[in-house]
Amino acid sequence: MTDKVFHLGLTGFPLGHSLSPALHTAALQVMRLKGEYGLYPAAPETADLQCLLERVRQGELDGLNVTIPHKQTVLPLLDALEPAARAAGAVNVIFRRDHLLIGDNTDLPGFLSDLQQQFPHLAVPGQRKALVLGAGGAARAVCAALHSAGWQLCLAARRPDQAAGLITDLRLSSAENLPLDAAGLSACGSVALIVNATPLGMAPNPQNNPWPASLPLPVGACIYDLIYNPPATRLLQQAQQAGLAASSGAGMLVEQAALALERWTGRPAPRQVMKQVLNNWR
Description:
six-stranded mixed sheet; alpha/beta; 20% strand
């Protein structure tokens, strides 16, 4: 066991729903590494986020995960971005290199990896169309990942201006920008995949659902909800009732966490152990 002690954590707001501490703590133990993974809430429009980043820069913290609402707001506070973070225009991992703060995005490869595991038939090359709900940091990673894999995209967001910014930043000139309501979702037409990248349905408000109750889900579509808490959101329940293939974001959570841990420690992460922690919680 190395003498190095890793001080890691997650920042965002709020953080009460997060399972990241349990995943990373178990992984560090199996890797025989000393360390801790804490929660560092940073409310919007405060100096909390900047103070946290200074702690990383000074070596007091070795790395941070970033979640809602800071995946984009953190960008101007960093010194450089890795290719995945540049592609997504969003960051979910921060680390220090030569006294510089570097942003990365493990959501992008984490999403693609789990999508292929959950719906292997979608990996077959061909003209495919995906509907992404939301336009925040998580949606940026999803859109960048799907675009890189050759998907056609529809975006449906509560803020069309935010979706327009995503389309411009990611150079998705052929993507459709639709309102997140029954009329907008119907206008997208036939799709092979629907991805919920909004927080609607996440604990502590599991009663919410981004999909209108009056609108049937598209026949034959696969449903992927990035939310993992609760394990079965209203959207996933609706998909299962309609007989559609559906998955939560639990697999993506594990994969992006494992990739982040490998970035911080330089060692392979024990994915099976992390999956077991998640299964025990569920």
